[in-house]
Structures are given as C-alpha cells and as structure tokens.
Amino acid sequence: MIIFAYHEISRARDPIIPVSIFGTPTAIANFIGVTVHGLILWCVLYYLPFYFEAVKGYTPILAGTALLPLTFTLCPSAITIGLLITRWGCYRWAVVLGSLLACLGSGLLCIINAHTSVAGWVCLMLVPGLGLGSLFPALIYAIQASAEPRQLAMAVAMCSFFRSLGQAIGIAIGGVIFQNSMHSNLMKYPAHASHADDYSKNVILLVEALRKMPESATTDDLKTAYSDSLRIVWAVCCALAGISALLSLLTKDYTLTAGESVQEDVGDTIKTATQVK
After folding, report:
1. CB–CB of 253/91 below 8 Å?
2. Where are the transmembrane segments (predicted)?
3. What was the pLDDT predicted at 15?
4. Beta bridge partners of residue 274, listed in sequence order
5. Is-contact 227 114, C-beta < 8 A?
6. pLDDT score recorded for residue 218
7. Which of 121, 94, 85, 83 has the alpha carbon at shortest distance from 105?
8. Given this model, what pLDDT does residue 11 score?
9. Which of 22, 102, 130, 180 is the most interior residue, by most CB within 10 Å?
C-alpha cells in the first residue's frame, strides 16, 4: 500500500487516485475521520459479543441480541443527521458532534466490567451508537463538499475504501491489544498463569473453557481479566476518537447548494470546488 501511494504521488503520469482529492484540510481531516470511524465501529461490533459470551455467559444468539442498544441507535441517528444536514444545508456541526459522541461513547465503554448490570451496559452502549451512526452521513457530506465536481465519484469511492481499511485495521489492532492485555492480566493470577498463552491467543477457547467451569473464585478471576483487557481496547478507541474529534475542527462548512463554487485556503494556494448536494 505504501509502495502504491508512493507510485501514485511521485511516478504515475495519470494516477488512478488523483492526489488533489486530499488537497484541503477539510478532505484530509475527514478521510482520517472515516478511517477512525470504521476502526472504532468494527472494534466495538467485533469484541463486545465476546464480552457477553465470556463474562456474562450469554449464548451467541443472546450476545447478538445484547448489541441491540448499539445497533438500534446507529440507523435512526444516521437518518436523522442526514435529514438535518439536508434541511439546514451545513454539515460541520454533525461531524464535530458525531466525533465527540464517538469519543465519549468509547470512553463510557471503559466503565463496563464483570459486574455491570443489564441496565448499566444498555445505557452505556447508547452513546457510541448515536455517535457512530451520526458520522455515517456527516463524513460523506464533508468529503463530497470538499471535492471538485470531476473528482466527486473518486472521493466517494475513497471514502468507502478508507472506512473498509479502518475496519480491517480495527479488528487487527484490537486483537493485538486484547491478547497482550489478557496475557498480562492472567499472569497476575497464579491459578491461570500456566494457561496465559493459550487463553490470550484463542478467545474462543477461553469462552468455551468458562462455560464448562462451575462458578467459583477462579472463574470470577478469568472474567475480571477478560473485562479488564477489553477496557484497554475501548481506551485506545477513545483516544483515536479524540484525535479524530480534534481534526474535525479543521472541517470547513461549505454550503451544499448545487453548482455553488467555494474556496478554501491551502498554504499559499486556494482550493476551488463546486459543491454538490
């Protein structure tokens, strides 16, 4: 990927991806935002079910059902924000608000532990759902508005690419963080230290082991280690969402009226783009 980017920037006479679509602070900030959005979204959707299965003892079906507080708020918030952006003709507020809610929501997930009640985790999962859902339309509007008309299709395609890239990176990074944290936490308990390598490298193995174990102090220690390890994953998501929220402040709020030309200063040059609705 790095070699491809170098070739597109420095060598290609007719690049597949025109570098100019990344030519403004608005575009750069929101492409980064799209990547972080995909990363956090799939970290949460991938690793929360493991919490419900391993720590709460839910079946896979119940674990999927337990995600409803998060997934149920994604679509309504995305639709609502999209309608408000269309009605008001501006999107910067939605990018900033969604980024802040995603940061806050990721931070709230850190509160979840082995003893969190059903009402507790339901309420805590609503905020990240609202934030991540809001960013779906907000980011695409911002990226479209910052692109020149002839590059609009490419900008939208790159938006999908960077979100997918973030999703892949999120699962990979989340796995590394969880494994290292789980190994460190298990080593704190002498009864589990001998199985630290196996349990930390195979999440499914640990889930199955917990289901077969009778309730005892030993299983409580495993559940605590599991939830504490996931807390590190949520903390990293919160930090990345915070960086994205800061970058969202660079977003320029263009009008979305079709055919209207706007300009943005980029160093000593001026970026001109015709905005589309």
Report:
1. yes
2. 27-48, 60-85, 91-111, 118-143, 155-178, 232-251
3. 63
4. 261
5. yes
6. 76
7. 121
8. 63
9. 102
Pairing of strands 260-266, 269-275: antiparallel
Burial 103-126 (b: 16+ CB within 10 A, else e): bbbbbbbbebbbebeeeebeebbb
pTM of the model: 0.85
Instruction: Tell whether the torsion through CA atoms of 107, 140, 266 and 8 is positive or negative.
Output: positive
Which domains does the chain show, CATH number per domain? Answer: 23-275 (1.20.1250.20)
User: Could you tell me where the DSSP H helices lie in the chain?
Assistant: 2-6, 25-54, 60-66, 68-88, 92-109, 118-146, 152-186, 196-201, 203-212, 217-248
pLDDT value, residue 266: 44
Q: Which residues of the chain have pLDDT under 70?
A: 1-2, 4-16, 255, 257-277
Q: How far apart are the C-alpha atoms of 106 and 237, rounded to whole Å?
A: 6
Q: How far is Cα 104 from Cα 85, in angstroms, rounded to an integer? A: 22
3-state SS assignment for residue 266: strand
Is residue 240 a contact partner of residue 40, using CB atoms and an 8 Å limit? yes
Let me know: does 145 contact 274? Beta carbons within 8 Å: no
Contact (Cβ atoms closer than 8 angstroms) between residue 109 and residue 121 = no
Which string of DSSP letters, residue by residue, matches 39-51?
HHHHHHHHHHHHH
What pLDDT does 3 receive? 74
Confidence (pLDDT) at 262:
45
Question: How high is the pLDDT of residue 4?
Answer: 57
Give the per-residue pLDDT at 195: 75
Q: Is 92 left (phi over 0), alpha (psi -120 to 50) or beta?
A: alpha
What is the structure's pLDDT at 148?
A: 84
